[in-house]
Amino acid sequence: MRELAESRLSNGIKIITEEIKESSSASVGIWVNVGSRDEVEEYHGGTHFLEHLLFKGTVKRSAKEISRAIEDRGGYLNAFTDRDMTCFHAKVLGKDLKLALEVLSDMVQNPLLKQDDVEKERTVVLSEIDSRDDDPGDLIHDLYFESAWGENEAAHPILGEKAPLNCLTSDSIRTYFESHYLPQKIIVTGAGALKHEELVAIVEKNVTLNKKYDRVDAREEPSFKPIKRHIQRQTSQVQVALTSKGLAYGDTNRDALNLISSYLGVGASSKLFQEIREKYGLVYSIFSTVYSLNDAGVFAILAGTQDQYVEKILKIELKELDVLKKDLSERILQKIKHKTIGLFVLRSESSESRMMQLGVSTLRQGKPKTLEEIIDNINSVELESMKELAGDLFVVDRLGLTTLGLSESTVKKVDALF
User: Fold this and answer.
1) Is residue 330 annotated as part of the catalytic site, yes or no?
2) Each residue of 43-60: pLDDT tens digit?
3) How far apart, in Å, do the first and last CA atoms of the chain sit?
4) Residue 234 CB: number of other CB atoms within 10 A?
5) What is the CA radius of gyration of the chain?
6) Under a CB-based contact definition with an 8 Å cutoff, are residues 72 and 66 in contact?
7) What pLDDT was estimated at residue 409?
8) Using CA atoms, how far apart are residues 413 and 381, in angstroms rounded to an integer?
9) Do residues 295 and 223 lie in contact, with contact meaning Cβ atoms separated by under 8 Å?
10) Domains of the chain
11) Is the per-residue pLDDT at 208 higher than 90?
12) Is-contact 133 231, C-beta < 8 A?
């Protein structure tokens, strides 16, 4: 009962939709192919800062009118910035889709970017950085990317750093906006109670950007570094991130890596949760994650624990990574596939989740995939390919380790494991 459709406007904007006939809601997103990896050093954090400012008012609407236009209809309006993209999105009743797109398109075309708004929002963003720094569980994510990708622009925190953020002005932000918010860098995705032709007509009427794309974006591919990095800090709970080289979003082995992650660290039934938390009670939280850009990726296992347990936790993690190379059975693989497909399908029942999947896949691999294609790809993963991938990625001296809050004595024990 779903239909995937794609169009491209004369100005270069790509539109991808998936009609979900049984849905009463519609979710729509305007995506810009610009993220924190596109920032020069003196502009670190500027992409995220710009995302904030686009909610502060346009030529047509005040900040209050932007939020009320959607929320007064019971809808939801938000945005996010990632390393390679920025997305402004809304979820509304199907009959309010036109209004949602009018508001979103106004935001990404006509922001005021006033200096007094810059000053006000600077305080908000700096507070957001302080909040992240106060939460070790948040901070470890930025730290392990810095460790894994080194000096590459894809490594630095999406929130940015205080020194460059304090130097941003409305003029410098507007220059960045005009350089990147271009029609050829924009896609629109929608899912739910909508018709493709109607959404295309709305976008064509409202998104009238036609500036020529006359610049070349130079994104340097990040290279994984298996370094061991220990950040000293007084924390009530230490954080441990064991990392390996990951895979680019379009890599044919990425489905196998997602299955490995599902097995190791997705949910309370996962192997590491059962072994480390349930069996031994060594952690409060432990999970694995797969992060992929269009040209590189990082796989990570993250644990929040106490200093005295870290050595044992890492020994168990290293043992389980080794098991993947030789002892995984066909029976277990089928269980992992069932779990992974179930999680994906259940998420995809939401119009918002499906809209997000369409946007991310289009920006990171050039095209969206149907639900059937994704499920078929997962089902086609073979046991031997998973074992071979584990053998390639999980070699001890190719693993990275980032910790926050470890004692010096524990650091020595941990480093001896590698």
Assistant:
1) no
2) 999 999 999 999 999 999
3) 51
4) 5
5) 22
6) no
7) 95
8) 37
9) no
10) 2-206 (3.30.830.10), 228-416 (3.30.830.10)
11) no
12) no
